[in-house]
Write a structure and sequence with these properties.
single chain, six-stranded mixed β-sheet, 243 residues, 8 helices
């Protein structure tokens, strides 16, 4: 099976469209979204419509949960709260019902899927550093061989072995027997690794290979929609820098 694993679209229809176009040549058998379809960007319904139709599994990200009324986001900073309120006021009832139905985590074939840390998915804890990956060691027996996560908007992978936890710093790698893997797939709609290109992962379960896919898209068009909407200008500006 070949899986395309998307995350953190954040209402960026230009990035999502370009990414799906690029994936047409990848012989994908199944599409998965790890959550945060909405938030920050200006095209929540367009992104929801596509992900609902395309993906075999979609998870509930923290921004999805906020828009769907499934979490308290009063502690978020003001611009983020405003963007969530803005999205909630514009999402259709059909898309709102869909967001309310999404699970926090899932198993899809042999894949573990979670928006944040798989240990307590509803807490939306980050895993983007080796120290955080090491905290998973006591739970590794309960994890599948590979778990894909989002949330951090970073391309980070960790191999957890019987005596070590290691960074996997490569745009493409193969799974080694005897290790458990946590793979953060980056962000389609708001990358934060100083590369403005959209990012997702293609996983081939037969070849046991993970590959990050970077795709250029019309950043200016996406940012302009944010500028034209009643949203914080920084949400558009940061797209040009990938931060």
């Amino acid at each position: 099976m070949r899986y395309a694993i998307l995350s953190d679209v954040h209402s960026n229809i230009e990035a999502l469209g370009a990414t799906l176009k690029a994936l047409e040549g990848e012989r994908v058998d199944s599409y998965v979204c790890l959550g945060d379809v909405v938030g920050y960007g200006a095209s929540p319904n367009e992104c929801c419509d596509i992900v609902r139709e395309l993906c075999d599994v979609t998870l509930l990200g923290n921004h999805d949960a906020a828009v769907a009324g499934r979490m308290d986001y009063s502690f978020y900073y003001e611009a983020a709260r405003h963007a969530l309120d803005w999205s909630a006021s514009r999402v259709t009832q059909e898309n709102l019902a869909w967001l309310r139905s999404l699970p926090f985590c899932a198993q899809h074939g042999d894949l573990g899927l979670s928006h944040g840390s798989p240990i307590d998915p509803e807490a939306y804890e980050y895993i983007f550093a080796l120290e955080q990956a090491q905290e998973l060691v006591p739970f590794t027996q309960d994890l599948p061989e590979i778990t894909f996560i989002g949330h951090s908007h970073l391309c980070k992978a960790f191999a957890i072995g019987p005596s070590e936890v290691a960074d996997v710093a490569a745009p493409q790698f193969n799974l080694r027997r005897g290790y458990k893997y946590i793979v953060s797939v980056g962000s389609v709609g708001q990358p934060r690794d100083y590369d403005p290109r959209s990012c997702c992962v293609v996983y081939d379960s037969e070849a046991r290979s993970v590959r990050y896919v970077r795709v250029e898209y019309d950043v200016e068009a996406s940012a302009q929609k944010i500028f034209d909407a009643d949203l914080a200008l920084n949400f558009g500006k940061r797209l040009f820098l990938g931060v």
